[in-house]
Design a protein that fits this description.
The protein has 17 helices and 22 strands. The chain has 483 residues and is α/β, with parallel strands linked by helices. The protein folds into 2 domains: 268 residues, Aldehyde Dehydrogenase, Chain A, domain 1 (3-Layer(aba) Sandwich), CATH 3.40.605.10; 184 residues, Aldehyde Dehydrogenase, Chain A, domain 2. The strands form 6 sheets. It has a 7-stranded mixed β-sheet, with helices on both faces. It has a 6-stranded mixed β-sheet with strand order 9-8-7-10-11-21. Strands 1-5-4 form a 3-stranded mixed β-sheet, with helices on one face. Helix 4 runs parallel beside helix 5 and helix 5 packs parallel to helix 7. It holds the Pfam family Aldedh.
C-alpha cells in the first residue's frame, strides 16, 4: 500500500481533531505483515503549544468539578472502553504485534486501573498540624494543572489509558503522547474520551520523542511530567525538565535477576521464569522481564532442560490467532536491534541453547524466536544491557552472598525475583537485593495498589498505588492566626 491508500488519523486537541501544523506524517506499519496500515501526525512545537493551551483552558473547570464528579466521569470512561475492548485489543495486535490474549489483558488492565484511581481520588487529602496557641495549621493537596504523560510502544492501550487515570482523578488535565511506533489505540482512546470528558481535559498528540516529546517536556506551562521508557530517554526528559525545575517521575528499564535456589520445583520455577519474561504477553518487550536467570549449579542442567522444553511449546505465529503466544516485535528498528544483540552474544562466546533468530516459516514480520543463552559470564553485553525482547540469559551460582552481589552489579534496579521454599532465605535475599520491587516465587504479576517503581537508573517515583495518585498533587500549608 501507498500512503494515499490508507487512513490518516488526527490528534485530539481541545476537543477538536487536528493535523500536525507542519503537515508531517508518521507511518504505522503492521509488524506481522510489514504493511502500511495508517498514517498519523508528526506533531511539533506548535502542536504541543496548542495542546498545552487547551489543557490550561480546561484545567480550572476540571479541578472545580470535585473528586466525586471526576470519579464518576472516569468510571463512565472505563465502562465505554470496556464496551469496545475487543476492537481495541485487535487494534493493538495489528499496530504493535501483541498476541491477542495479551492485548485483551492490556485493555482489561486499563479498565481496572481507571476504576481504581476513580475510587481512590478522595484519598489525595490534606492533614492538620499539631495545634499551637492561637493558630490552626492545615494542608491541602491541589493539582498541578497540566500534566504531560509520555508512554512507550510496548503496551500501547494499557499505558495510554491506564496512565492518565491518576492525574485526571486528582484534577489535572493531561497532554498524552504515545509511542510513535504504536499510537493508533491512543487515538481511539481520544475518540472514546471525547464523548465523556470536557474538551481539553485529555489531549492526545502523536509524534517523535525528539520533536513532540522534547517540546512537551520543555514547555513552561507543564510543571508535572511522567515518563515511561528507556533509560537514555529518561535522562533526556530530566535534562529537558531541569530548566523549569519540574516534578518528574520516571519508570525506566530493567535488567532484572531471578535467583533460583536448589530446593525449588524445577518445572514450576522454569515456567515462572518464562512467565516473568512476558514473552506471551508482549514478546518480552517489558521493562520487568526476568532476563537474567541465576540458577544454583546443582539444578542448572535440569533447569535448562525444563526451560528449553517449555520454550519449545510456545506457539509463535500470527498474533491475531487465538492460540498464538508469541508475536512479532513492534517495529523494524527494534527487531534489528534485538537480532544485533544475538549476534553480539555469539561473537562474545555465548551458546544459543534455544532459538537465536527468525522462526522457521516466518519470512515476513518482525519475529524473533524465544531464545535461551548459556555459556555466559557477567561481563558479557547480553548480561549487562537491556535487550527488551524474548531473550533469556542463564548463569549459575553456589554462594548466596556472591550471587546477590552479582545480581546487584548493574546500574538498573527495577525488579528482582527469588525462588525458594526456604522462608528465611527468601526474606534475607529479598532484603539484600537492590530493586524497587522484589517477588518471592512470583511470575511478574503485581496486585493493584502495590507501589511499583525502580531504584538506581530504573526510575524515580512509584506507580500503581496511592503514592502515584498523591504524586499528581502539590501540598500547600495554610496557617491561620486565631483572633
Amino acid at each position: 500500500m501507498s500512503p494515499a491508500d490508507v487512513q490518516h488519523r488526527l490528534m485530539l486537541v481541545g476537543g477538536a481533531w487536528v493535523d500536525a501544523a507542519a503537515g508531517g506524517r508518521i507511518e504505522a506499519v503492521d509488524p506481522t505483515s510489514e504493511e502500511l496500515i495508517a498514517t498519523i501526525p508528526a506533531a511539533g512545537a506548535a502542536d504541543v503549544e496548542a495542546a498545552v493551551d487547551a489543557a490550561h483552558a480546561a484545567a480550572p473547570g476540571w479541578r472545580d468539578l470535585g473528586w466525586a464528579r471526576r470519579g464518576a466521569l472516569l468510571r463512565e470512561l472505563a465502562r465505554r472502553i470496556d464496551a469496545e475492548a475487543e476492537w481495541l485489543a485487535h487494534l493493538d495486535v495489528r499496530d504493535a504485534g501483541l498476541p491477542l490474549s495479551g492485548a485483551r489483558a492490556d485493555v482489561t488492565g486499563a479498565v481496572a486501573e481507571i476504576g481504581y484511581y476513580a475510587g481512590l481520588a478522595p484519598e489525595a487529602r490534606g492533614s492538620t498540624a499539631p495545634p499551637a496557641p492561637d493558630t490552626l495549621s492545615y494542608t491541602v493537596r491541589e493539582p498541578y494543572g497540566v500534566v504531560a504523560r509520555i508512554v512507550p510502544f510496548n503496551h500501547p492501550f494499557k499505558f495510554a489509558a491506564g496512565k492518565v487515570a491518576a492525574p485526571l482523578a486528582t484534577g489535572n488535565t493531561v497532554v498524552l503522547k504515545p509511542g510513535e511506533q504504536s499510537s493508533l489505540s491512543a487515538l481511539e482512546l481520544a475518540r472514546i474520551a471525547a464523548d465523556v470528558l470536557p474538551p481539553g481535559v485529555l489531549n492526545v498528540i502523536t509524534g517523535t520523542g525528539a520533536a513532540a516529546g522534547a517540546a512537551l517536556v520543555a514547555h513552561p506551562g507543564v510543571h508535572r511530567i511522567a515518563f515511561t521508557g528507556s533509560v537514555p530517554s529518561g535522562r533526556a526528559v530530566l535534562h529537558g525538565a531541569a530548566e523549569g525545575i519540574k516534578h518528574v517521575t520516571l519508570e525506566l528499564g530493567g535488567k532484572n535477576p531471578i535467583i533460583v535456589f536448589p530446593d525449588v520445583d524445577v518445572d514450576r520455577a522454569a515456567a515462572a521464569a518464562i512467565a516473568g519474561m512476558n514473552i506471551a504477553r508482549c514478546t518480552g518487550q517489558s521493562c520487568g522481564s526476568t532476563s537474567r536467570l541465576y540458577v544454583h549449579a546443582d539444578i542448572a542442567g535440569r533447569f535448562q532442560d525444563a526451560l528449553v522444553e517449555q520454550l519449545a511449546r510456545l506457539r509463535v505465529g500470527d498474533p491475531m490467532g487465538e492460540d498464538t503466544q508469541v508475536g512479532p516485535l513492534a517495529f523494524r528498528a527494534h527487531h534489528d536491534r534485538v537480532l544485533g544483540y544475538l549476534d553480539t552474544a555469539r561473537r562474545e562466546g555465548a551458546t544459543i541453547a534455544y532459538g537465536g533468530g527468525r522462526p522457521a516459516g516466518r519470512p515476513r514480520g518482525f519475529f524473533v524466536e524465544p531464545t535461551l543463552l548459556t555459556g555466559l559470564d557477567d561481563t558479557m553485553t547480553v548480561v549487562r544491557e537491556e535487550i527488551f525482547g524474548p531473550v533469556m540469559s542463564l548463569l549459575t551460582w553456589r554462594d548466596v552472598d556472591d550471587v546477590v552481589r552479582r545480581a546487584n552489579d548493574t546500574p538498573l534496579g527495577l525488579t528482582a525475583n527469588v525462588w525458594t521454599r526456604d522462608v528465611s532465605a527468601a526474606h534475607r535475599t529479598a532484603a539484600a537485593l537492590e530493586a524497587g520491587y522484589v517477588y518471592v516465587n512470583g511470575t511478574g504479576r503485581r496486585p493493584t495498589g502495590t507501589p511499583f517503581g525502580g531504584w538506581k537508573s530504573s526510575g524515580l517515583g512509584k506507580e500503581n498505588s496511592l503514592e502515584e495518585l498523591v504524586s499528581y498533587t502539590r501540598e500547600k500549608t495554610v496557617t491561620v492566626t486565631l483572633w
